[in-house]
Write a structure and sequence with these properties.
The complex is a heterodimer of chains A (109) and B (114). In chain A, 34% of the residues are buried. Chain A has no helices and eleven strands. In chain A, strands 2, 4, 5, 9, 10 and 11 form a six-stranded mixed sheet that branches. In chain A, strands 1-3-8-7-6 form a five-stranded antiparallel sheet, with no helix packed on it. Helix content of chain A is 0%, strand content 54%. Chain B has strands spanning 4-7, 10-13, 19-25, 32-38, 45-51, 57-58, 67-73, 76-81, 90-97, 104-105, 109-113. In chain B, a hairpin with a 6-residue loop joins strand 9 and strand 10. The chains are: A mainly beta (109), B mainly beta (114). At the A-B interface, strand 5, strand 9 and strand 10 of A face strand 4, strand 5 and strand 10 of B.
Chain lengths: 109, 114
Amino acid sequence: QQPVQSPQAVILREGEDAVINCSSSKALYSVHWYRQKHGEAPVFLMILLKGGEQKGHEKISASFNEKKQQSSLYLTASQLSYSGTYFCGTETGTYKYIFGTGTRLKVLA
Amino acid sequence: GAVVSQHPSWVICKSGTSVKIECRSLDFQATTMFWYRQFPKQSLMLMATSNEGSKATYEQGVEKDKFLINHASLTLSTLTVTSAHPEDSSFYICSAGQGTLEQYFGPGTRLTVT
């Protein structure tokens, strides 16, 4: 089953924060986060493997809950370059890689 | 490092013809390559998983006779769309990895079938 992301879309002004959620109906082996610009391939942001893990990457960080069924991506002090579609990618243990439904983010000046 | 290339980046073909898309890992050996299809404003949908030297594993609903995948070496996988039709028009993306810890995506191939 494809993980569900929320919100579907969000518009921010520069400097504002956003949270994107990725929820699965069953436990995941890992969760990856990607950002995709229009017409381009996804760019890897980070991977979380352990329940309860939190990881940061400059002003973008993510968490993976203890049950490993939900992950959140945190964007702080957003920049124009953050605009794009964010996908979580998950692996369910059968060497199957599934992407979430996607969240479109637009940052305005 | 970890660069994946795709060729061509954009192709237009007539209905009924076949198109081959190449995916290469340029600076590493990829034991597994994945092929995805993405329609406008939608998520990436896994089509098949390709392991070097063995038959590809196709996802449910993906016709293996229509989407031929060959993974002849650790650096090259090809996807051939046979007898393409307008509904096959899409953005095709490959990724390569040595496990599922991280995947490296190619730049994608935009296919338009007229």
